[in-house]
Amino acid sequence: MTSPATVTASPDALTSGAQIDLTNIHHGFFHRDTFVRAVWDLSLTINSGEIVSVVGPSGCGKTTLLGMISGLLKPRRGSVTVDGIEVTGPRRDIAYMQARDALMPWRSVRQNVELGLQVHGVRAKARKPKVDEWLERVGLSRFADSRITQLSQGMRQRVAIARTLVQEPRCILMDEPFAALDAQTRALQQQEFLKLWSEQGASVVFVTHDLPEAILLGDRVVLMSHRPGQIVQDMPIELDRPRKSEMQYGDERFLQYRRELTSQLRVEVDKAREAGVAP
Ligand SMILES: Nc1ncnc2c1ncn2[C@@H]1O[C@H](COP(=O)(O)OP(=O)(O)OP(=O)(O)O)[C@@H](O)[C@H]1O
What domain of life does the UniProt record list for this protein's source (predicted)? Predict the structure, then answer.
């Protein structure tokens, strides 16, 4: 199920991405008296510095999968390791960017960006230069003291990205980070994220419902089955980097990946309906 190791970020990257190994992981939830299997017997390796996009029918267990990698959820069976060390709880080197930007409106831009460092006990003096650097990188230095409510949606997203990357994580987990953005802002944010990622070098697990986005960003696209989620396809995306948004309209290989994934996803969505597990 795994592709050969590929180090895809820039050789000058700030950090080296970690290898993430999921081995026969299982998780489920009780709905009243019934146990619902969310992810069942799933194994996957994310190689150092790779972006792996995860797609699948709604409710197939994608967020549950990220929860287990982040250490917020403990697999009922199986193991999650990062560079061979078992994940037993949240860690500073694993950053999790959840579906909504989850910024704190009562804190300034700067205070939001430094939040993760603060939580992990980094002192104010050490936080400041890192936060300044990332505000600069995402073009928000002038807004450091602004309130979150004064920002556009695209700017909010940049705050969320800075807050994630300032921790210099070796793994980044992203759950539909650009879903709330209009098409134009989304395309810009995708490009900005790819640029920052290539400079930084983390391994990324990127959950999305958007197949062109999955292909544009991913070194591989992993397709999950209907619930309980398992992997039914692990497709290497052999498009050169840097990748431009326009590829999704004119690049024949891109279109071919999209056609294949669309038809496989449709099969899984239909199976989910037949099995009565579509949300
Ligand atoms: N905290 C929870 N308590 C109970 N059931 C849950 C919980 N979290 C997830 N589930 C159930 O587990 C299954 C998988 O949910 P999950 O959110 O991981 O799917 P998903 O693929 O991320 O969905 P979507 O694409 O719609 O965001 C669903 O049936 C969901 O109802």
Answer: Bacteria
